[in-house]
Amino acid sequence: MELRGAAVIVTGASRGLGAALARELATTGARQVLVARDSQALEQVAEDVRRRGGEAHPVVADVAQPEAAGRIAGMAGALVGPPAVLVHNAGSLGPVPLRPLADTGDAAFEEAMATNVVGPFRLTRAVVGTMALRGQGAVVLISSDAATTAYPGWGAYGVSKAALEHLGRIWQEELAGTGVRFLTVDPGEMDTRMHRDAAPEADPTSLLPPETAAVRVVQLLRELGQ
User: Fold this and answer.
1) CATH of the domain at 197
2) Is 2 within the bounds of a domain?
């Protein structure tokens, strides 16, 4: 897939993998719309992209909110044109510290589902039509091995990631033949704030730098259609 000049939306772009991916994409010539809730951190990432010679436009939004999808899609279209790539990286662990499902409240479970599944559904729906009309596009779903392995205490997160993966499979079947591709990527355990929140006892030196995972995601995008 040609990324030079391509309009790319990255959610959860203010830190972790999202920030690393934005910086990696700066070298490709992609025109990026970066989405996150933290305006200050998001602007810093956008500045990093620009210093690397890339184009980046910060959009402060919470993907879990019902009105966010239309706003993000509309602003992306105005700023960089019809999106060619959408990366669903924003994520929520649910309750922290992690706890069994029996001790998980409704609000915490619903927050994980809203951020990890419902938000990506709404935003995909908002942009996938233009991708199909143009005959090309890629939607990247950042998942986890918690989607396929039942880890005690990771219930809300694991259930939401399993649902996200299946959501992608259904989208792919329904859009077969349109040129729109769905990629599910499990980046592995990374040295991020989210991982520290989930497993504060983990040795950071045993974890993957998010920059390494970002290189992999960009390479996968480049290999699409080859």
Assistant:
1) 3.40.50.720
2) no
Secondary structure (DSSP) of 55-105? EEEEEE--TTSTTHHHHHHHHHHHHH-S-SEEEE-----SSSS---GGG--
**CA 44 centroid distance within chain:** 18
For residue 25, the one-letter residue type is: L
Report yes or no on 1 lying in a domain. no
CA 132 to CA 144: how far, in whole Å?
27
**pTM strictly above 0.85:** yes
pLDDT in tens, 158-188: 999 999 999 999 999 999 999 999 999 999 8
Q: What is the pLDDT of residues 25-34, one digit of tens each?
A: 999 999 999 9
Strand partners, 58: 34
Known catalytic residues?
A: 157
